[in-house]
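look at this fold:
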Amino acid sequence: MSYKEHKDKILGFIEEHEKWRSSTINLIASENITSPSVNRAVVSGFMHKYAEGWPKQRYYQGCKYIDEVELIGIELFCTLFKSDFADLRPISGTNANQAAFFGLTQPGDTIIALHTSHGGHISYMPFGSAGMHALKTEFWPFDFDEFNIDVDKAAQLIREKKPKLVLFGGSLFPFPHPVKELSEVAKEVGAYVMYDAAHVLGLIAGGQFQDPLREGADIITSSTHKTFPGPQGGVILYKNFGEDVAKLQWAIFPGVLSNHHLHHMAGKAVTAAEMLEYGKEYAAQIVKNAKALAEAMAEEGFKVIGEDKGYTKSHQVIVDVSDLHEAAGGWAAPLLEQAGIILNKNLLPWDPLEKVNTPSGLRIGVQEMTRVGMMEDDMKEIAHFFKRVLIDREDPKKVEKDVFEFRRQFQKVYYSFDYGLPMKE
C-alpha cells in the first residue's frame, strides 16, 4: 500500500469504530463520552501549543488565550468541588497519583491502599507507580460482607504502621469508603489523606456518593473521563495545607510532566461548566440507573453483589458469574461483546490473583448509557439482554441485532449545553 492508502485505512478504522460504538451498549465503568462542546475544545488549535508553568508565568510565549481558559477552568473546578485549588495539569489519573506520591512522600515511606484484588488501582501496587517511587504499600484489611474497608482493623493498621499517606478510592467501587472514620486516625500518626476519585468524580460533583474534602481528605486525585464526562486526563483538588502545596505543585511540574495537553485541559474546563449546570441531575440518574440495573439483573437470575446494602451507591454494578461457566468472567465478557454489550471481566475480592484471566466477576458501569438518555426502564431491557446471552445461551449474534435496534434510540449526549436534560416519555 502507498502511504496515502495507509492514511485512508487508519481514518476508515476510526469511522468504523465510531459507527460501531454508537450501536453498542457500552458498560465499561471507566469510560464515557464527551459532548459536542467538549469535542470542539479538544479538537482545537490548543493541541498545537506548549504552556509549561503557571498561567501568566509561562516558559513559552503565545499563551495569552491558553492562560485565560486555564484560569477559568481552575475557578470552575474549585466552585464545583468546593476546593481551595484545582490543578488541571495532570494528563491522567495515574499521572495525578504519581504527582501525589512524588510530592507528599519519600522513597521508603509506607502508604496504605486497596489491593488490586479488592478493587485497588495498579498505580498503588509495588509493580505500579507507588513501587517505582520505592514506596512500601500496606493493604487495607477488607470486609467481604460489607464489600469495603474493615474500619476497625484499618484503624489498628494505621496506628501500627504509621504510614506517610493513606489512600482511599479504587477501581471496583460500589460503596463509599470510610474516609471520615479513618482520616482522624491517619492524622493521629501524621499521615496525609488522599482520595482517588477516578471512578466517582462525577458523582461527587453532583452531590452523590460522598464528599471527601469535607470528610478529612487532604487531596483528591482523579481522572476526568469516567463518571466525570470529560476528555481523558487528570486533575488534583486540594485544601490549602501550607508548604506541602508547593511540594505537590513542584511534583506535577517539572516532576511528572512537562506540557499538560492543553486541548484536554480546555475540554476539562468545558466539562466542569456542564457539570455545574447539569451535574446534580446527571449524578442522581446514574445512581438510579445503577440500582435499577442491579435489581433487574437479580430478578433475571444473576448473582449481584451487595444485595443487603442495596447493591450499589455508585455507577457500578458487580455481578458474580462463576456459577454460569468455569471460566466465569473470562467467558462472559467476550460472549457479551459478540452481542454488542461491552464491559470487562473483574477479579472479585475472594478470587486468587492467578484467576486474573478467568475471574468470578463482571464490572458494569451505567454512566455512559445514562449520558445518552437511558432511564430506569431501559436498564430492565439491558438486564434482559444479559439473560438472553448468559443464562438462556441464545446466539449472541441474534441478540446483537436487537441490541443495535435498541441503541439506535439513544444517540444524543445529554446533560450538556448541546442537548440539555433528557425528557422522560
User: Anything to note?
Assistant: The first strand starts at residue 25 and ends at 26. DSSP finds 15 helices and 17 strands in the chain.
